[in-house]
From TrEMBL:
Keyword DNA-binding: yes
HTH tetR-type domain ranges (all copies): 24-83
Record's keyword terms, sorted: DNA-binding, Transcription, Transcription regulation
The organism's place on the tree of life at top rank: Bacteria
Pfam families recorded: TetR_C_43 (PF21597), TetR_N (PF00440)
DNA-binding region: 46-65
Protein name: TetR/AcrR family transcriptional regulator
InterPro entries according to UniProt: HTH-type_TetR-like_transc_reg, HTH_TetR, TetR_SbtR-like_C
Amino acid sequence: MAGAIPMETSTAQPPVRPMRADARRNHDRLVGEARRSFAEHGTDASLEDIARRAGVGIGTLYRHFPNRDALMNAVFQDALCSLLERSRELAAAEAPCRALVDWLGAIVTHAGEYRGLAHGLMSASRNGTSALAQCHLPLREAGAGLLRRAQESGSVRADVSIDDLLQLTNAIALAAEQSPDDPELAERLLRLTLRGLK
């Protein structure tokens, strides 16, 4: 219609409403039970069992966490914060290559706490829509800073990418997960990684 004023469309998201107290309790119980179940049974633990142990129905679990990756993301936030803090501590280390490998070793250690986490993180690196990408992307950024510093110091080859390093790190965690009778495997593979980086 001539002379009509076009309506503006807003892309702004509505503000997130804080959780009610009972919803917050359910959320926290679900995360706690998921943490215990993932540690005991791996990340493919039964979501129905997690809901039951948290004292809620499966529908409540799905209202808080629409899929397994979203629940895994919530469970691993503490580990993510720890890894990001470790990257900040190592950012000024005297030996940048060693600092990078130490940080990659911390990822292997954290991934080893939950069978299946390394596989989930590997998948998230190729799927930006996964809730686990919220873990992968900050790790990638932190690792890229450590890698850049190591490359600028001349101690790491220029053709090494952070994406390749994170995939390699998750592969080491997967190999260690599959070889529980060889507790030194991850450390040996990380030493090989260190030699390959130079």
